[in-house]
């Protein structure tokens, strides 16, 4: 019980530090890494449902979208260059629940392994770097198979006392057989901006990608409202506009508005 309260206090300090922009000391970070669980949320975990904007909702243009994402820190003690080894896994599913037999249209699998490094300035935590090798595929065969591999580098920083900015770039490899023009639709990177409009009560997430061809790309906007004082569960409204929301139809433009529940990570800087 004593350790549980200590861990809860440390996580509260972490979240408060991120909200206030005051930063967390290096000693506090080391203590958090020693006591915090190695297995934690990576990206948002959510289940949302909605339909195509501008069309009358039907069983063919409405669906359920859900995401499961977690990471596992393999080392508590830092490696060379004060880095940490971690595994990540994200699964994104599109479920045609309103059609007869409720089939899954597609499930995208995204495992990865990486090195994370925390960044300090004047003894305070200011951001993090992550170098990863990732794979993404839909587990299909024949003409429906979609997959690609890439090395990614992401930089996450406290942009302001109430906001976090993440820049992520990738170099793809071994992907041209299934989807040779994928980069035209997703580009070579993405930018994510998280704005805590009212502390942890109301949070806005915006993620943008620019493809290499014309105006191709995507913009995902997510407004999150936390109805309870404790916990990290949110009511989420998500709008996806653009290409490559999933792999199997990456060449098709979509505009989907969905509403549901999300569980968000307590911090975006730790691995």
Automatic annotation (TrEMBL):
<comment type="similarity">
    <text>Belongs to the phospholipase A1 family.</text>
</comment>
<keyword id="KW-0812">Transmembrane</keyword>
<keyword id="KW-0472">Membrane</keyword>
<keyword id="KW-0378">Hydrolase</keyword>
<dbReference type="InterPro" id="IPR036541">
    <property type="entry name" value="PLipase_A1_sf"/>
</dbReference>
<feature type="binding site" description="in dimeric form">
    <location>
        <position position="101"/>
    </location>
    <ligand>
        <name>Ca(2+)</name>
    </ligand>
</feature>
<keyword id="KW-0479">Metal-binding</keyword>
<dbReference type="Pfam" id="PF02253">
    <property type="entry name" value="PLA1"/>
</dbReference>
<dbReference type="InterPro" id="IPR003187">
    <property type="entry name" value="PLipase_A1"/>
</dbReference>
<comment type="subunit">
    <text>Homodimer; dimerization is reversible, and the dimeric form is the active one.</text>
</comment>
<feature type="binding site" description="in dimeric form">
    <location>
        <position position="145"/>
    </location>
    <ligand>
        <name>Ca(2+)</name>
    </ligand>
</feature>
<dbReference type="GO" id="GO:0004623">
    <property type="term" value="F:phospholipase A2 activity"/>
</dbReference>
<dbReference type="GO" id="GO:0009279">
    <property type="term" value="C:cell outer membrane"/>
</dbReference>
<keyword id="KW-0443">Lipid metabolism</keyword>
<keyword id="KW-0442">Lipid degradation</keyword>
<feature type="binding site" description="in dimeric form">
    <location>
        <position position="140"/>
    </location>
    <ligand>
        <name>Ca(2+)</name>
    </ligand>
</feature>
<dbReference type="GO" id="GO:0016042">
    <property type="term" value="P:lipid catabolic process"/>
</dbReference>
<feature type="binding site" description="in dimeric form">
    <location>
        <position position="178"/>
    </location>
    <ligand>
        <name>Ca(2+)</name>
    </ligand>
</feature>
<feature type="active site" description="Nucleophile">
    <location>
        <position position="137"/>
    </location>
</feature>
<dbReference type="GO" id="GO:0008970">
    <property type="term" value="F:phospholipase A1 activity"/>
</dbReference>
<feature type="active site" description="Proton acceptor">
    <location>
        <position position="135"/>
    </location>
</feature>
<keyword id="KW-0998">Cell outer membrane</keyword>
<protein>
    <recommendedName>
        <fullName>Phosphatidylcholine 1-acylhydrolase</fullName>
        <ecNumber>3.1.1.32</ecNumber>
        <ecNumber>3.1.1.4</ecNumber>
    </recommendedName>
</protein>
<keyword id="KW-1134">Transmembrane beta strand</keyword>
<keyword id="KW-0732">Signal</keyword>
<dbReference type="GO" id="GO:0046872">
    <property type="term" value="F:metal ion binding"/>
</dbReference>
<keyword id="KW-0106">Calcium</keyword>
């Amino acid at each position: 019980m004593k350790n549980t309260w200590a861990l809860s206090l440390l996580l509260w300090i972490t979240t408060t530090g991120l909200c206030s922009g005051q930063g967390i000391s290096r000693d506090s970070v080391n203590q958090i890494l020693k006591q915090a669980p190695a297995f934690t949320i990576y990206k948002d975990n959510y289940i949302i449902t909605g339909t195509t904007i501008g069309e009358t909702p039907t069983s063919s243009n409405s669906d359920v979208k859900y995401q499961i994402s977690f990471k596992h820190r393999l080392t508590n003690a830092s490696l060379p260059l004060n880095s940490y080894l971690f595994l990540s896994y994200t699964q994104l599913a599109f479920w045609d629940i309103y059609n007869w037999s409720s089939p899954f249209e597609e499930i995208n699998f995204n495992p990865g392994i990486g090195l994370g490094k925390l960044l300090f300035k004047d003894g305070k935590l200011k951001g993090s770097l992550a170098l990863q090798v990732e794979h993404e595929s839909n587990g299909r065969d024949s003409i429906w198979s979609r997959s690609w591999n890439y090395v990614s580098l992401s930089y996450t920083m406290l942009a302001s006392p109430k906001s976090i900015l993440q820049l992520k770039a990738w170099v793809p490899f071994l992907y041209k057989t299934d989807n040779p023009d994928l980069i035209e639709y997703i580009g070579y990177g993405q930018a994510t901006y998280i704005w805590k409009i009212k502390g942890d009560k109301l949070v806005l997430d915006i993620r943008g990608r620019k493809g290499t061809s014309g105006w191709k790309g995507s913009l995902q906007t997510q407004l999150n409202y936390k109805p309870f004082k404790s916990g990290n569960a949110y009511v989420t409204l998500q709008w996806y506009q653009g290409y490559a929301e999933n792999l199997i139809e990456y060449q098709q433009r979509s505009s989907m508005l969905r509403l549901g529940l999300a569980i968000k990570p307590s911090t975006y800087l730790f691995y």
